[in-house]
Amino acid sequence: MTEETLEIRGFRIFKGYLDTAEQAALVEAIRGVVRAAPLFSPMTPYGKPMRVRMTSAGRYGWVSDRRGYRYEERHPEGMAWPPIPGEVLAVWGDLVSHARMPDCCLVNFYDADARMGMHQDRDEADFSWPVLSVSLGDEGLFRIGNATRGGKTESHWLQSGDVVVMGGDARLTYHGIDRIKPGTSMLLDAPGRINLTCRVVD
Ligand SMILES: O=C(O)CCC(=O)C(=O)O
Ligand SMILES: [Fe+2]
């Protein structure tokens, strides 16, 4: 159900890709992931807590602590990550590839005052695979920068149901979430935003 597709600096933004029922089904599936692998608050390698809480599904999950950013086969509490929900894989299949499925679906939960600083996603082995992002819940202000840190940026409010494909030259472009706008979606029971990013890891 894509309403329109935008392209900003090579980021393909499918506005309203998921309808309300599809969004609700994804939220249910993610609740299952969180029951199996609870959200945790990662530390940056510099010892500062990250503002988002996160968990993962798939063969690998993304973690961060004093030892650095990396993928691990186990949650910090020791359990294996649950499988990536079929609803998420379906979006990947439609927009990226049927030939290879992602190894990791990172789940980021933003509460009303969470944000994510500008960064590149570069812990994966093969940058020819895009990162696919799904937004659920309150709107988030997505900032898109450049191939190196700094410089002029462009921003776009990501809404519930929007899907972004970050591939090609945009794969290593800096990006982040400046803030969310609590109360802009009724999808979740409380203010907040969920973002899913699917990644091919190795
Ligand atoms: O929350 C978002 O929309 C982006 C998340 C992100 O960039 C990441 O998890 O690497
Ligand atoms: Fe990212």
TrEMBL record:
<dbReference type="GO" id="GO:0035516">
    <property type="term" value="F:broad specificity oxidative DNA demethylase activity"/>
</dbReference>
<dbReference type="GO" id="GO:0008198">
    <property type="term" value="F:ferrous iron binding"/>
</dbReference>
<dbReference type="InterPro" id="IPR037151">
    <property type="entry name" value="AlkB-like_sf"/>
</dbReference>
<dbReference type="GO" id="GO:0035515">
    <property type="term" value="F:oxidative RNA demethylase activity"/>
</dbReference>
<feature type="binding site">
    <location>
        <position position="121"/>
    </location>
    <ligand>
        <name>Fe cation</name>
    </ligand>
</feature>
<feature type="binding site">
    <location>
        <position position="175"/>
    </location>
    <ligand>
        <name>Fe cation</name>
    </ligand>
</feature>
<feature type="binding site">
    <location>
        <position position="123"/>
    </location>
    <ligand>
        <name>substrate</name>
    </ligand>
</feature>
<dbReference type="InterPro" id="IPR005123">
    <property type="entry name" value="Oxoglu/Fe-dep_dioxygenase_dom"/>
</dbReference>
<dbReference type="GO" id="GO:0035513">
    <property type="term" value="P:oxidative RNA demethylation"/>
</dbReference>
<feature type="binding site">
    <location>
        <begin position="69"/>
        <end position="71"/>
    </location>
    <ligand>
        <name>substrate</name>
    </ligand>
</feature>
<feature type="binding site">
    <location>
        <begin position="108"/>
        <end position="110"/>
    </location>
    <ligand>
        <name>2-oxoglutarate</name>
    </ligand>
</feature>
<dbReference type="GO" id="GO:0005737">
    <property type="term" value="C:cytoplasm"/>
</dbReference>
<protein>
    <submittedName>
        <fullName>Dioxygenase</fullName>
    </submittedName>
</protein>
<feature type="binding site">
    <location>
        <position position="119"/>
    </location>
    <ligand>
        <name>Fe cation</name>
    </ligand>
</feature>
<dbReference type="Pfam" id="PF13532">
    <property type="entry name" value="2OG-FeII_Oxy_2"/>
</dbReference>
<feature type="binding site">
    <location>
        <position position="62"/>
    </location>
    <ligand>
        <name>substrate</name>
    </ligand>
</feature>
<feature type="binding site">
    <location>
        <begin position="193"/>
        <end position="199"/>
    </location>
    <ligand>
        <name>2-oxoglutarate</name>
    </ligand>
</feature>
<keyword id="KW-0479">Metal-binding</keyword>
<feature type="binding site">
    <location>
        <position position="149"/>
    </location>
    <ligand>
        <name>substrate</name>
    </ligand>
</feature>
<keyword id="KW-0560">Oxidoreductase</keyword>
<dbReference type="InterPro" id="IPR004574">
    <property type="entry name" value="Alkb"/>
</dbReference>
<dbReference type="InterPro" id="IPR027450">
    <property type="entry name" value="AlkB-like"/>
</dbReference>
<feature type="domain" description="Fe2OG dioxygenase">
    <location>
        <begin position="101"/>
        <end position="202"/>
    </location>
</feature>
<keyword id="KW-0223">Dioxygenase</keyword>
<keyword id="KW-0408">Iron</keyword>
